[in-house]
C-alpha cells in the first residue's frame, strides 16, 4: 500500500463512525474508491463528502473477503488525524461478527455453531432466535429446525450476528449446458463467478457490477458451471426475453429447455425465466418455486426484490442463490434481508474502473436547475409537502431544456425519462416522439426499441418502466425530467441506460432537470449520492441560457 503524505491526507474519521472526505485532495479519487468498499456516502456538497460506516456495509465488505485490519489500514492511509480508539474497536466488534455464528449440516440435520459460550448463551436467551432451536444447546452447538433456515438467519441479523451459512445445498436436477466458443468472457466476469463459487462459503450471494457491464453473462457462466435446473427472476417481460435470447445465443441449450413464465406465457422448463411481478401478484404463482427441482435461483436486479419473494426465499435456503445488481442500495431499508436470504456481497467492481478499461461508456452528469413559472409559485407555496414535489417535478419549463439539449446534441440518440404520465404525455406530444410506459404492449415496445436501435427514432420518451433491463446500446443522452423522490438506485439505473459502449464516440451525457429552490432540488441531492460515490460528480447548470 502506498504511503500518503500527512499534509495531503484528505480524510477525517470521527468517533460516530462518520468520515469527512475533502474533494480537493490529490488522492481524493483513490480514497473515494477505497471507501466505497465498506462505507456509504450520505452527503456530497462540493468540497467535503460525508460517509457513514454501518453494520451492513461492514458485513458486506466481510462477505467479499475484506477484514477489519484491511479497513483500518485504508483509514490510516488517508486519515490526517489519528483514528479514534472507539472506531478501531467498533470496526473489530461489528465487522468481525460476520462468521461468529455459523450454520452447518451434519447427517441432513441443521446446526448452529459458535466458538463463544457467551454468544451461545445470548442466542438461547433471545426468544426470536431460540424459537427455531429443536432442543437445548449442547456446548457450542444447537440443532435447528431445517425448515426455518432462512428465518433464523433473519432473526440473527436482527440482533447483529450475521451468520455464515456453510450448510450446503441440494443438488437440483442436473442438465447439460455448455458455453459457446463465440462467448468471450471478460476477466472481471470470470472473477465474479469465481468469488461467488468460493469453496466452503460460496454458491450464495450478490455480484455488484455497473449497468452495461454484462451481469447477465455472469449469471449464464455460473449456470453453466453448476449444470443444474435454474429459475431466473427479473424485472419485466422485456428483461425475461433478453435473458432467453442471451441464453440461446451464448450457450448450446435447446430452445425447448428454456421457458418463459410471464403474463403472456406459462411455460415451465429446466431453465425458466419469470418476473417478480407475476410471482408476487398472486399466491398461485408461488408454485413456480416448487414446480421443478431447481438447483439454482438467479435474482436479477436483486435490489428490487419485493416482500412476497423475500418470504418465499426464506424457505428456499437449500437452493443456490445469486443476486445481480448495479447497486445494493434499497430505499426501503431491506438490505439486511438481501444479506440474510440471498447472501452477502461476493464481488464488486467500481463503475469508474470499468469505464477506465473501456467496458462501459464514459459519462458526464449535469444537474440543470430552472425557475418555476410565475403562475405555479403560489400553488407550490400553499401545497402539501408531497404535492410540492410533484408540482416542481412537472414544471412545464422543462420542455425548453429538452429543446436546448436536442440542439446541443443534434446527432444523439436521446431518452427523455420521467415518472409522471401526464408530464410524459405532454412531452411526447410536444416533440412528436413515441411514448413508452407500462401500458405499452410488449410487441409495440419491441418495435420501438428496434426503431431506436436502427436510428429511425432519435428521441424516445420513457416512463420508469425503462429503468431496468432495456438494451439500447446506441442511447448516449438521457434527460431526466422527474424521478421517484430521492431514489439513489433509480438515478443509478437511469444513468445505466446510456452506459453501454458505443461505436465511435464513447461518451454519454446524463442531464437531471430540476426546479430550483424547491423540494425537487432537495431530493435531487440525495438521488445523486450513489453516482457521486462512484466517481460521477454533477456539474451544475443554472438555467437554460447556460447550456452551450
| Number of beta-strand segments | 22
Structural class: alpha/beta
Q: What oligomerization state is this entry in? A: single chain
Biggest β-sheet: count, sense, barrel?
7 strands, parallel
Total of domains: 4
Physical arrangement of strands within the biggest beta sheet? 11-12-10-13-14-9-15
Q: Tally the helices: what do you get?
A: 23
Task: Report the CATH architecture of the largest domain.
Answer: 3-Layer(aba) Sandwich
CATH class of the largest domain: Alpha Beta
Give the fraction of residues assigned to helices: 25-40%
Which regions are unreliable across 5 or more consecutive residues at pLDDT < 50?
Answer: none
CATH topology of the largest domain: Rossmann fold
Radius of gyration: 24 Å
What's the name of the CATH homologous superfamily of the largest domain?
P-loop containing nucleotide triphosphate hydrolases
Describe the protein in words:
It is globular, with a radius of gyration of 24 Å. The protein is built from 23 helices and 22 strands. With 548 residues, the protein is of the alpha/beta class. It has 4 domains: 6-95, no CATH class; 101-161, no CATH class; 187-349, Rossmann fold; 355-546, P-loop containing nucleotide triphosphate hydrolases (Rossmann fold), CATH 3.40.50. The strands form 4 sheets. It has a 7-stranded parallel sheet with strand order 11-12-10-13-14-9-15. Strands 18-19-17-20-21-16-22 form a 7-stranded parallel sheet, sandwiched between helices. The mean pLDDT is 91. The two termini are 43 Å apart.
